[in-house]
Every structure is written in C-alpha cells, then in structure tokens.
Amino acid sequence: MTRPKKKRGSLVPPLLLLVVLGLCADAWMQLNAPLQIDQAATVELESGQRLISLARKMDDRGLFANERQWVYLVLYGRLHGEAAQLKAGEYAVEPGLTPLGLLAVLISGKTMLHELRLVDGWRFSQAWKLIQADPNISHTLANADDAAIMQAIGKSGIGPEGRFFPDTYRFPKRTSDVSFLRNAYSEMDKVLDAEWAGRAANLPYASPAQALIMATLVEKESAAANERPIIAGVFLRRMKAGMRLQTDPTVIYGLGDAYDGNLHLEDLRTDTPYNTYTRDGLPPTPICLPGRDAIHAALHPDDGTALYFVAKGDGTHQFSSTLEEHNAAVQRYQIKPHQHP
Fold first, then answer.
1. What pTM was computed for the model?
2. What is the architecture, at CATH level 2, of domain 25-78+88-108?
3. What is the pLDDT of residues 46-82, one digit of tens each?
4. Which part of the chain has CATH 3.30.1490?
5. What is the DSSP letter of 277?
C-alpha cells in the first residue's frame, strides 16, 4: 500500500519574513542614526509642502547620511500619520539629530525666531528702513507712504512717529511687515496705557498722546537716564509759566532734509510747526520713538525749580533756576552760546 506523500511547507513565507524583518531592522537603525549634519543648520518647511518634498531638498543639501534615511523617514511619517501633522516654518537642526528627531521637530511647531531691534530715540523712518531691509520679514508694503502704512495696520488717521515701541522683537521667518508693525504698535499702547494709569497728579496733559509727545522730547534731550525726570520737569514748568520750550531736537525734526548736521541761528528763527523757539506749547506730533524710561519720566517729572539746562559736553547737563544762572552756564560750557532750555 502506497503511503500518501506529505506536503512540504513552502519556503517563501519564512524567506519573506526574514526580508521584512531585515528591512524593519535596517529602517529602525537608519531612523535612529544621526543625520549628516556637522554644524548647526536650518531647514524650512513651506506652507503646503509635503514631507517627501522637504526630504528630497534636504538630501540635495547632503543632510542625510544615505538615501535610505530619507526614504524610511517619508514611509514612517506616512504610516504613522505624522506626515500630516507637520507645521510650516523654519527650524534649527543640530548635529546628532536623527530622522525621527527631525520629524518630532517638524511636528512641534517650535520654529526659529529672528531678532530685530528698534532703538530708543530713532525716528520712524529709521525704524522702517531697518524693517524693510530685514530678509526674514515678508515685505508687503513696498513703496508705501506713512498714511498707507498706518492704514495697512488698521490705524488710519494716526501718524507713525512715536507710535512703535522701541525694543528687541523676536519673530519667525516670513512674518509680514504689517504683522511686525502691529505688534510694535500694540506694545507702545500697552506701555503708554500702563504709565498713564500710574501717572503723577496735576500734570498738564490733556491726553496720553500729549504725554507721548513730551516723552519724545525727553528722549531726544537726555543721554543720562537720571536726568530724564529733571528734563521733563523743566519742560513742564516752562509750559505752566507760559514759556516756550525752546528745545533744539524739535527744530531739527521740523527742518527735515534741510538739516545739514549743524543747527544755525537762522534755523532757530525759521518757523515750522515743530519750532519750539517760535511756537508755544508742545509740537504737533512726537518726534521719535521714546523708550519706557522717557515715557515714565514725562509722567513722573522732577519737582525741582530748574527752568533751563545747557549741555556740558560730556553727555550731561547743567540745570539752572534763573536766567542769570543759565547765562553763566552757557558762557562756561558753550563756545558759541545761544539761549537753550
């Protein structure tokens, strides 16, 4: 009697299993091996860009140790659904980062931040020039005049001078110029509102806007921080006494492009809306971007008796309570004296 033959098991499944296990092991090793990064670098995932597109660009830059790394990264991202969770932006990649680490970074949304500093005492035109030149800002307001700029940030009818807080701002790449300006404008509002709420009593300002104008005069006249409240006190006492402010920075601002770097006696006599030698009271607008210290000083002036001051040439001033004292100080500290607050 012939025995039936036993069916032999197929060798294909075990071989296929070995291949699959080998690929998985290789994939896991590659996904956890460092990228080919010798020094800190950046990668940028654009809005709507897919992981495979970014991986290919990185491979073109030589950031992967081998082709398998980025292929496995894309497959892993798709299989686990993480490829759909990526957030656009610019990211820092450091030596030692693995493909899986890269994926976590791209999902985190912790994009790189760039810095731009607006300096206390700058005019808006200086700040705007710096903003326009920053390569990390998306420029949408090219050739816009002041009115168009303010309209774009939702502040039509308000001049830009003095309205943007001088500070160091950190922002992700491709932040728009409109967004940057809105942020700086909002910061100035916050500072001014806080300082106005805590202001000293019996100040002659009709509004926070007038205090802001005074702060810009204090900013431009003071190099030494401890003198700011004293200078603010001088200006406010002069206003209360019906005296003109007679401050050179307002004259310079009013001259605009006509200012040649030196202030002449003729300039002091040339009437403009900003000439505080020829006009009473505050100028019509701020003349620079004032820092918080200047704003605080304008709202917390010194309660002394000084009505005049003259530059001593070392960044500080000589303060005087009488015209006689002031004239003597002018003779001492100025080669070509002219009356100065």
1. 0.84
2. 2-Layer Sandwich (3.30)
3. 999 999 999 999 999 999 999 999 999 999 999 999 9
4. 25-78+88-108
5. T
